[in-house]
# Entry
Amino acid sequence: MNSLTNKVAIVTGASSGIGRAAAKLFAQEGAKVIVAARRGNDLDFLVEEIKKDGGEARALAGDVTSESYAQALVDLALKEFGQLDIGFNNAGTLGVSCQASSIALEDWENTLRTNLTSGFLGAKYQLPAMAKNGGSIIFTSSFVGYTLGMPQKADYAASKAGLIGLTKALSTEYGALGIRVNALIPGGTDTPMARQFGDSPEVVEFVRNMHALKRVAKPEEIAQAALYLASDASLFTTGTAMLVDGGVSINKT
# Structure
């Protein structure tokens, strides 16, 4: 039996990168998946891929910073599949890259809305849907702002660190209902968003060398960690900031 048989999952940020890899993996492991992102065409293509592989998925495009969209995703899961077991709140943005004193308030608020508020809104509607049978909520945080600081990324660091605080609060508030809440902390990962940080040979080499493994992750490797948190293999795991970072948090060479 696959590890997510009879489970229903929502995956945000599913049009590319970690979210896309996780949606495909969850479906391969037996879950029925609601895929969410802004780019509807990319979501439709993903759904077709999942179906060709024998899985089941539905797409709903929208803005993760919208409360009505967060509710609509849960409503769709309940309407189409009758339950919700997994919420992988993965959508995010790199924000701006400049000194903190130069960040415009609008840019600061946009980064927090996309990375932190969207996670809260997702959980706000996912939690009641899981209250009867339990479930797993996962946030994609970052080593930036958790195990190390990075200059010119104050908005990103603050938003991703906020997800860890949210994880701890929700895990204690909803643990008695059998709902587990965890934050995933990837290291550098080869995604379109990561390439926005820099894709010159010098930047790529610098980022690789930050890690003890001297490489960055494939999205599929981070998806495997998300699968652990989504599945019953992690039934006694909650409130954690789970490092899947290739040793970036401990590397000094």
